Amino acid sequence: MSIKENVVKKSKRANEAAKDLANLGSEIKNEALLAMADALLDRKDYILEENEKDMEYGRENDLPESLLDRLLLTEDRIEKMANGLREVAQFDDPIGEMMEMKKRPNGLKIGKVKVPLGVIGIIYEARPNVTVDAAGLCLKAGNTVVLRGSSSAINSNKAIVKVIAKAAYQAGLPEGSIELIESTERKAVQEMFKLNDYLDVLIPRGGAGLINAVVNNSTVPVIETGVGNCHTYVDSEADLDMATEITINAKTQRTGVCNAMETLLVHQDVAEEFLPQMVDELQQRDTTVKGDDRVQEIVDDVQAASEEDWATEFLDYILAIKVVDSFDAAVEHIDEYSTKHSEAIITENYTKAHKFTDIIDAAAVYVNASTRFTDGGQFGLGAEIGISTQKLHARGPMGVNELTTTKFIVFGEGQVRE
Amino acid sequence: MSIKENVVKKSKRANEAAKDLANLGSEIKNEALLAMADALLDRKDYILEENEKDMEYGRENDLPESLLDRLLLTEDRIEKMANGLREVAQFDDPIGEMMEMKKRPNGLKIGKVKVPLGVIGIIYEARPNVTVDAAGLCLKAGNTVVLRGSSSAINSNKAIVKVIAKAAYQAGLPEGSIELIESTERKAVQEMFKLNDYLDVLIPRGGAGLINAVVNNSTVPVIETGVGNCHTYVDSEADLDMATEITINAKTQRTGVCNAMETLLVHQDVAEEFLPQMVDELQQRDTTVKGDDRVQEIVDDVQAASEEDWATEFLDYILAIKVVDSFDAAVEHIDEYSTKHSEAIITENYTKAHKFTDIIDAAAVYVNASTRFTDGGQFGLGAEIGISTQKLHARGPMGVNELTTTKFIVFGEGQVRE
């Protein structure tokens, strides 16, 4: 069977399954999620064995340590995956909720009901836990899922899907509810891009390269996720102790994530007071600081920031810092370089705080808090399938609710249009 | 200036304007809409003159009568366009509505506020009134708009945009709020497809060819609208008088629209009683009936329906009719050929009515009513920018509300993530 035939076959099967899954009740879906969790634990030795194959291959091919760590499964990590599924089983089921039903003047009762999107394609990199998390969230919202992970995790992903798909099927979900594209050829992904007949949406999870490839080549609707060139602006009226704490948190609490800060903007009136101590604190935490001319004037030992740095999502212990003349200059810089993920202002000034939240165009706009909070769990939405940085359909952390669509239901008594 | 430069320039200008327009209050937006309405009436002679050029050109090039009629502007039609703008001015402004704001356990106040999408590109055919309707709805929701109409209406569109853009600007909207791509070359549209930096969404309005071209080639997110291969299923337990009335309405009340019925499915138990009279009524209304073998057995003078007919949106006085063995067979046929726009069942059976609305996957699912009601005005949403047949973002009639997105606003007091 060619790669294309295989991708079509699996997507078609997921599409067929979606019709049945859409109308299964919450009980069966939740039982399936719990059964999947149990199966992961029951079969953990098998999954760890298969994961070890990926790890060996990764080490032979000199994958960087950070990637190997993302790839690694342990008993503890498998338990976390299982607990994630149990948590999702606890969520309210959004499907079937009639959001509005009104009686029109002509007697038609018109309502809007939440229904699954259908088939969700997830294209992702490295971490095998995405396989479980994504499948769980999609199923909860009544969607089937076609997964396509990276070649480096292929043995782990095959093992995981084998285990959870079987458990889901035995618990009563239709066959084809969880499909994995096993081909590690790029061609397999390219086939997914064109399967509008079988896939309702594609969600890429990974770096900018992956996301751009999907956005630029897919005719299937895409939800863009995750690239975050996030800024924090320290205003002239900021509480500088608070600004220091937030800066350190937003940059160093976890660096490889999309909601970490990448550029710090500092108002000129507070730069001399704020920067020396701030840079020192960062450097103590092994963070490389790159600054514009004015930062370099104020602090020694700071590399020059290039034009490219302002546009870079470092995802590392690197921070670009710029001194700005005014609130407006900060907003302008953000407008130019932001990926519209998460942006923050630190200020005690009421008017500037509200102006910032009004005019900054991003999925999440913060006053006096760390951008690290942009996350489904932190926002109270439960687990998330990703963080949308586009404006259509969903913006910001996407939970189970964002994996649904609606349809209008119209109950008549013979009405015709005049 | 090359076509590309021109399209980029206008889109960029709309993008700049969008930043200002997003935070203008309702008052200025509404004043602008009313000023645009006044200007259309004040300058109607000029607009009619320019429209006459398009009409002449159309007649010289033997455009079909139906297209010429869509192209034609009259005093009455201009008045309707103006009234449309006045109606939109009356709508509630969705922008700035804080939909939820919750205090999280850590004290963060997290809310979700409605904001404009930004810049909306509308690619449309023939009817010059779309120019006004689309601009009005986009502006109301705080979006700027880049319009690209068809070459056959270019003089009308240029005149209309000149008039309304000037009025909008004088009323206080930023320059660039309404932009028209004047090039009638296909290349101009193709340039729009790739302008992700300046356009937030593309909405095609027109036939299947146009819509497919946009969906298949645009990297800018698209909202698919309008192709409707709509079915009505007359169940074995239907009230046949009601079924007759609804069939006639759904097929013949207006044929060139996406919510008109294209295929009638009739349960075998009622086919012999229902069809002869039904077909007679349709033929009296100059409607060509195409049937499968069983329809042809029951009624004389019926053409054979081909496989292709089941998949065709006739948009004309043509109806395909099929006799089905069962409820399930009707659902299967709809699943196979539906464009997921509007689907109806005629039945007095409670269980089948609910089963139909549960399992049919379409933007609007009807019981005992004509599919012709799928329309923003009829659904109580006010004027519509189109009817979405995709699942992302919006489904069914899209009004002002569907031209918005959200952002999260987070008010903190120095919170950092543990």
Task: Describe the protein's architecture and organization.
- Chains A, B: Belongs to the gamma-glutamyl phosphate reductase family.
- Chains A, B: It comes from Halanaerobacter jeridensis.
- The structure is a homodimer of 418-residue chains.
- In chain A, strand 1 and strand 2 form a beta hairpin.
- The first copy, chain A, has 2 domains: 3-224 and 390-410, 3-Layer(aba) Sandwich (Aldehyde Dehydrogenase, Chain A, domain 1); 230-373, Aldehyde Dehydrogenase, Chain A, domain 2, CATH 3.40.309.
- With 418 residues, chain A is α/β, with parallel strands linked by helices.
- Chain A has helices at residues 3-21, 26-42, 44-60, 65-71, 75-90, 129-140, 154-170, 186-193, 208-217, 240-252, 268-284, 293-298, 307-310, 327-337, 350-359; strands at 98-103, 109-116, 119-124, 144-148, 178-180, 201-205, 230-234, 261-267, 288-291, 303-304, 318-324, 342-346, 364-369, 386-388, 396-398, 404-415.
- In chain A, the strands form 4 sheets. In chain A, strands 10-9-11-8-7-12-13 form a 7-stranded parallel β-sheet, sandwiched between helices.
- The model of chain A has no long low-confidence stretch (mean pLDDT 95).
- The interface between A and B is large, with 67 and 67 residues.
Topology:
2 copies of one chain form a homodimer.
Chain A: H1 3-21, H2 26-42, H3 44-60, H4 65-71, H5 75-90, E1 98-103, E2 109-116, E3 119-124, H6 129-140, E4 144-148, H7 154-170, E5 178-180, H8 186-193, E6 201-205, H9 208-217, E7 230-234, H10 240-252, E8 261-267, H11 268-284, E9 288-291, H12 293-298, E10 303-304, H13 307-310, E11 318-324, H14 327-337, E12 342-346, H15 350-359, E13 364-369, E14 386-388, E15 396-398, E16 404-415
Parallel strand pairs in A: 3-4, 3-6, 4-5, 7-8, 7-12, 8-11, 9-10, 9-11, 12-13
Antiparallel strand pairs in A: 1-2, 2-16, 14-15
